């Protein structure tokens, strides 16, 4: 099933970005089956469409990481290559991929190290998140 662009997704992405702007990290959970999603989803594989928002404690451990040397064109225009991406496993078990903020690291990333997700405002006013040491 492909990504469906609809009003729920647009409103949901806006809510997620607004949460970052306020220093919150939000995700969704299906009211029908209880499955939680990271990043937030707007429909559940069980068929549920009624999802509730909840705050995620933005800390966990680095599950995996990699250096990207050849980025897709759209990303390469906005990011210096090479860059480092990682997978964070939050303390509640949810997982998320994101850029590792290399400026905050004192050494090479290490699987198992404590990390957190932090909101970051870009020069154009957009908000993203990065992974950095906890």
Can you describe what's shown?
The chain has two domains: 7-55, no CATH class; 59-133. With 134 residues, it is mostly beta strands. The protein has helices at residues 7-21, 73-76, and strands spanning 26-30, 36-37, 51-55, 59-68, 83-90, 95-99, 114-121, 127-133. 14% of the residues lie in helices and 37% in strands.
Helix and strand arrangement:
Blueprint: H1 7-21, E1 26-30, E2 36-37, E3 51-55, E4 59-68, H2 73-76, E5 83-90, E6 95-99, E7 114-121, E8 127-133
Antiparallel strand pairs: 1-2, 1-3, 4-5, 4-7, 5-6, 7-8
List its salient traits.
mainly beta, 2 domains, 14% helix, 134 residues, three-stranded antiparallel sheet, five-stranded antiparallel sheet
Number of extended strands: 8
Which structural class should the secondary elements be placed in? mainly beta
Give the N-to-C terminal Cα separation.
Answer: 36 Å
What order do the SSEs take from the amino end to the carboxyl end, as H and E? HEEEEHEEEE
Helix content: 10-25%
Give the radius of gyration.
Answer: 16 Å
Parts with pLDDT < 50 across at least 5 consecutive residues: 1-5
Number of domains: 2
Strand content: 35-45%
What characteristic shape results from the CA principal axes? globular
The profile of the biggest β sheet is: 5 strands, antiparallel
* Number of helices in the DSSP assignment: 2
Rounded average pLDDT: 87
How are strands sequenced across the largest beta sheet?
6-5-4-7-8
């Amino acid at each position: 099933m492909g990504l469906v662009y609809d009003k729920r997704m647009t409103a949901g992405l806006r809510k997620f970005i607004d949460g970052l702007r306020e220093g919150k990290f939000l995700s969704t959970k299906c009211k029908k089956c209880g499955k939680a999603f990271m990043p937030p989803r707007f429909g559940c594989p069980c068929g549920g469409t009624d999802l509730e928002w909840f705050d995620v404690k933005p800390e966990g451990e680095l599950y995996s990481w990699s250096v990207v040397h050849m980025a897709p064109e759209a990303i390469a225009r906005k990011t210096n290559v090479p860059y480092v991406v990682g997978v964070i496993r939050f303390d509640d078990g949810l997982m998320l991929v994101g850029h590792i903020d290399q400026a905050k690291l004192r050494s090479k990333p290490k699987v198992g190290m404590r990390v957190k997700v932090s909101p970051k405002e870009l020069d154009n006013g957009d908000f993203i998140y990065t992974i950095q040491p906890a």
